[in-house]
Amino acid sequence: MFTTALAQRGKTEQGDLPLDLFTAIETLKKELNAVILAHYYQEPDIQDIADFIGDSLQLAKAAAHTNADVIVFAGVHFMAETAKILNPDKMVLLPDLNAGCSLADSCPKEEFGAFKAAHPDHLVVSYINCSADIKAMSDIICTSSNAVKIVQQIPKNQPIIFAPDKNLGRYVMEKTGRDLVLWEGSCVVHETFSEKKIVQLKIAYPQAEAIAHPECETTVLRHASFIGSTAALLKYCEQSSSQEFIVATEPGIIHQMQKRAPHKRFIPAPPLNNCACNECPFMRLNTLEKLYWAMKNRAPEITLQEFIREAALRPIQRMLEMSA
Ligand code: 13P
Ligand code: SF4
Questions:
Q1: Within this chain, do residues 46 and 18 fall inside the same structural domain, yes or no?
Q2: Has residue 4 been placed in a domain?
Q3: Is residue 238 within 8 Å of 260, Cβ to Cβ?
Q4: Does ligand 2 come within 6 angstroms of the Cβ of 283?
Q5: Among 283, 284, 285, which residue has the most ligand 2 atoms within 8 Å of its CB, making it the best to mutate?
Q6: Is the CB of 282 under 6 A from ligand 2?
Q7: I want to staple 129 with a disulfide (CB 3.0 to 4.6 A). Which of 3, 56, 103, 168 is the partner?
Q8: Which residues contact 245 (CB under 8 A, 6 or more apart)?
Q9: Residues enclosing ligand 1, CB less than 6 A?
């Protein structure tokens, strides 16, 4: 079931790793009354040991409803932070605190504050891929799976700032016919896909359907027959009658696609150069070993100032109400 050879495990800076890491993590899970939540972009071993795997919205909902005392978040910082915002009394652990997000980093609070002040009559809709500070300055949070639905619910005469992803913002503009004021942020991973290479793949695999995450640029999205969040892409691959897919998002999702539809073929969309830059460098900082140490040491833990947490909670709750 698990894909990493246990024999590869050994000594680390923190001490000896147990020989059977999977059993050791299961034992710690019981000891801590912990739940492991993982995003689809995590490495296969982490996905396999998680109690729940999902896209950002599903993970936020899972965090909002868990009875566990400890949430081990196998994802990036803004996701673990969202879990903490929703659960101030629970311990939230992130295997590697450096697991950030280029989109969140592209929106510093001082600059965003000035941007917001320049548009005083605008409602702020922020993509969940942002810091707690930006959430605290927002009116409604959205994810890639509910952004269109949320913007559609806002009265037509209400001007809107959409931050921080300009590509998702443009996609929402196209889908809703609304004119949004966009913050110019983007994701390093989704901006790396090469239109030329996708077209070449479509020629090489004429039966394959190209599918894409809305964080991709318009030049990539225009070749996709389906656009959606990671959870939506997964569902689409399972239900479509096509047997081959060119997948323009982080290739971690292919592990679940292959599990759910083992007879189908999933081809990762190639990046511009012959690098591994279609893999999210932040998501991939988490490893099974770090997850074990996080549970063993009860660290690194996500902490937040209470006034920021309270301010960031309101727009998240609004999102959960609007996407129920
Ligand atoms: P999802 O909403 O599909 O989980 O997207 C999260 C993300 O970080 C995509 O890069
Ligand atoms: Fe952020 Fe992009 Fe990584 Fe998603 S894939 S976590 S948006 S850097």
A1: yes
A2: no
A3: yes
A4: yes
A5: 283
A6: yes
A7: 103
A8: 208, 209, 210, 211, 237, 257, 264, 265, 266, 267
A9: 55-56, 129, 143-145, 187, 213, 215, 229-230
State the total domains in the chain.
3
Rounded to the nearest 5 percent, the helix, strand and coil shares of the chain are: 45, 15, 40
Decide if 257 contacts 234 (C-beta within 8 A): yes
Q: Measured between alpha carbons, how far is 291 from 94 in angstroms, rounded to an integer?
A: 8
Pocket test for ligand 1, best of 230, 247, 253, 256 (most atoms within 8 A of CB): 230
Pair 240, 292 in one domain: no
Domain membership of residue 28 (yes or no) is yes
Choice from 47, 82, 213, 254 to test ligand 1 binding pocket (greatest atom count within 8 A of CB): 213
Do 149 and 87 belong together in one domain?
Answer: no
- Per-position pLDDT tens, the chain of length 324: 344 444 344 556 677 889 899 999 999 999 999 999 999 999 999 999 999 999 999 999 999 999 999 999 999 999 999 999 999 999 999 999 999 999 999 999 999 999 999 999 999 999 999 999 999 999 999 999 999 999 999 999 999 999 999 999 999 999 999 999 999 999 999 999 999 999 999 999 999 999 999 999 999 999 999 999 999 999 999 999 999 999 999 999 999 999 999 999 999 998 877 788 899 999 999 999 999 999 999 999 999 999 999 999 999 999 999 987
The boundaries of the domain holding residue 316 are 103-188+308-322
Output phi, psi for 263, to 5 deg: -85, -5
Whether residue 182 sits in one domain with residue 122: yes
What pLDDT does 12 receive? Answer: 67
Cα 187 to middle of ligand 2, angstroms: 6
Q: Could you give the C-alpha distances from 18 to 14, 28, 282, 287, in angstroms and in order?
A: 12, 12, 26, 15
Residue 184 lies in a domain: yes
- Identity at 160, one-letter amino acid code: I
46 and 88 part of one domain: yes
Helix axes 253-260, 230-239, angle to 10 degrees: 20
